[in-house]
Amino acid sequence: MRIAMTSYPSFGGSASVAASLAEALDARGHRVRFVATEVPPTHRLPSSVPFDRVDVPGYSLFGDGFYTVALADKLADVARADGIDIIHVHYALPHAVSAYLAKQMLGPAGPSVVVTMHGTDVTRIGAEPAYRDALRFAVLAADARSVPSHYLAGAARRRFDLPREVDIDVIANFVDCEALQPKDDAERARSARELAGAARGQRVLCHVSNFRRVKRAPDVVRVFAAVRQRGRDARLLMVGDGPEHDAARTLARELGVDEHVTWTGSVGDVQRYLYASDLFLLTSEEESFGLAALEALASGVPVVATDVGGVSEVVAHDKTGLLVPLGDIEAMTRAVERLLGDDAKRANFAAAAHRDAERRFCLPLRVAEYEAMYERVLAGKRHRAHAL
Ligand code: GMT
């Protein structure tokens, strides 16, 4: 199949899913092109996946350019030049609209459109009255839709008021299980020392995000401070950057724990930091899935997370991690203490976390599901052409 893949080039889950999927489909023999303003910073596309840059020229009359239109133009261009079968866009706003426009430009012989919704494109920004109707139209007009969790399928159905007969495929996010093998204790201790400044026996907590408000990074700091206050000599790795980074850091200073925190800023290779960690903290007020938590689990790092959105579809409570109510600092602190204070329990959780990720979330399972969705879409198209 010939596939054009699009995502924002963000430090975020949707970009990571799009780039990993492009790479995996390429390895399976499909011809894939990546169409975006930049390659996602966390990935290097193989040379067999051409990158088609979307330029968005501005003009003195209107200032910034029109990304939605420029992307449609580029998608149509790429599809025309390379006989693309499927345009697969990640994050619906505005990508579903651009893909719809490109499809209309190319007519009935043109590509089919697949839209993967990821989270706030449904629940927040996509639900804004200023965008909602156009976005709903484009999501409905797509040839197939997917989401990473049952939670988001329900949310999308409600927000966009999708009729019953409109299918949404639930295709969970995935990790490269071969690349994420847990390290032994000695290697973990070495990474903890080098990357988190941890002394022998000192435990390392870790948070990875793009520090958007929805992640509630200051809550990570609150939990960490409470854990230390109760006598647990731990360190904290804060990996990533974004709007609430400085607020989280200021809070760490105010609570007197900043000297025990390593702030890495944005990094391409999150993996090294996971290998230095004993526990992963996810404090989000909303997550359709929580890819960062899955990466931790696959690396053998148990997760303590807020029980929101689709997180419980990823973290198995009391087996691979502990789920606590949103914003409940005391409950999260106790959950952290429970796992930090019991090495055997933490080791059991770590082993279960890796096993569960291998069983449910490895890349080949998901690539097969995406391929099946594409094939269904193309079969439908052939069927319709035949019926005419
Ligand atoms: O929807 C977003 O907020 C952005 C998006 C991203 O690009 O990071 O995050 C969402 O998609 C990820 C990949 O499917 C999921 O793992 C995240 O849970 C989800 N974020 C939210 O729902 C807040």
Supply the key terms.
388 residues; alpha/beta; Rossmann fold; 2 domains; 14 helices; elongated; binds ligand GMT
Secondary structure layout plus pairing:
Elements: E1 2-6, H1 13-27, E2 31-36, E3 51-53, H2 67-82, E4 86-90, H3 92-106, E5 112-116, H4 120-123, H5 132-141, E6 144-147, H6 150-159, E7 169-170, H7 185-196, E8 203-208, H8 217-229, E9 234-239, H9 245-254, E10 261-265, H10 271-275, E11 279-282, H11 291-298, E12 303-306, E13 321-324, H12 329-340, H13 343-360, H14 363-387
Parallel strand pairs: 1-2, 1-4, 2-3, 4-5, 5-6, 6-7, 8-9, 8-11, 9-10, 11-12, 12-13
Helix pairs in contact: 2-3, 3-5, 8-9, 8-12, 11-13
Bound molecules: ligand GMT.
Ligand GMT binds next to α1 and α4.
Describe the protein.
The chain has 388 residues and is an alpha/beta fold. It folds into two domains: 2-174 and 363-387, Glycogen Phosphorylase B (Rossmann fold, 3-Layer(aba) Sandwich); 185-360, Rossmann fold. The protein has helices at residues 13-27, 67-82, 92-106, 120-123, 132-141, 150-159, 185-196, 217-229, 245-254, 271-275, 291-298, 329-340, 343-360, 363-387; strands at 2-6, 31-36, 51-53, 86-90, 112-116, 144-147, 169-170, 203-208, 234-239, 261-265, 279-282, 303-306, 321-324. Strands 3-2-1-4-5-6-7 form a seven-stranded parallel beta sheet, sandwiched between helices. The radius of gyration is 22 Å and the shape is elongated. Ligand GMT binds at residues 10, 12-15, 17, 118-121, 148, 173, 214, 286-291.
